[in-house]
Known about the structure:
Helix content: 25-40%
Radius of gyration: 20 Å
Distance between the termini: 20 Å
Oligomer: single chain
Number of helices: 8
Bound molecules: N-(5'-phosphopyridoxyl)-D-alanine
Number of strands: 15
Strand content: 25-35%
Amino acid sequence: MTPQIVYLNGKFLPIDEARVPVLDRGFIFGDGVYEVIPAYARQPFELDGHLERLEASMAGIGLTNPHSRAEWAKLVSEVIAKNEPQNQAVYLQVTRGVAPRDHPFPKGVAPTVFMMAGPLKPVPAEQIENGVAAVSLVDNRWLRCNLKTTSLLANVLLRQAAVEAGAAECVLFRDGFLTEGSASNIFLVKNGVIITPPKSNFILPGITYDVVIELARAHRLPLEIRQVSEAEVRDADELWLTSSTKEVLPISTLDGKPVGHGEQSGKPGPVAARMYQLYQDYKRTVMRAPANAQA
Ligand code: PDD
């Protein structure tokens, strides 16, 4: 196996040789932003959307963007090209750089830019077929969840609580309204209508969320983007989570109770299956990849 090649501040090198000084503000303060970009058949998926969100995250924390859109795109392509797997997850992080520890922004310090591309693990077929368990938790994160920052302690603690409860993800509520998951957006279906909360400072504007909404519109599936109460989530016919690495994944139980009603209860529903298929078809179309390249 050839070693995983990463990018750090202008150089490509084996991951074991990549080093960041301990005074990097990413290490000291979690002072940085990141992206996770899937690549199928060695082509980045929805790259412009991810780079646009990266730019918004940097602007949102007052971090000077060290690269043009074209330079970012080139670096992402290069890191994919230097690694073997057909399908990869590109992790890209920019921190406010290395400086003596002090809270205000340091002056004249170059940001640290790091990128790694590892194999994109396919979602197990069993999970797509049967769905995953989720638990509800109070969203106790900060009020700027629209920024994709590396300060993920709250998300880490929420996900750990979900895992300790035997679940794959949590469904978060703030003041009685649905926000998102610890690393995913949440959709529900009621009487055939796909429903999801609007973009705001309470959720990350997911790239998969955007694709799912576009697909629903393009295929004239009933869609409502609006605030969703906790009661509506608990009474949903279907619940799904979406993210770049999990794509469209049904949630089959919430707090140990089956999602849905009647015969469909506890099983992924028909709208999830339809959206999953539309998503796979869309991926194949935009990537111009052979049908089996997603496996
Ligand atoms: N997480 N909400 C949160 C809090 C997330 O961290 C993510 C993604 C999403 C979905 O966004 P997208 O569809 O653009 O992947 C929503 C990534 C995958 C991660 O942190 O690993």
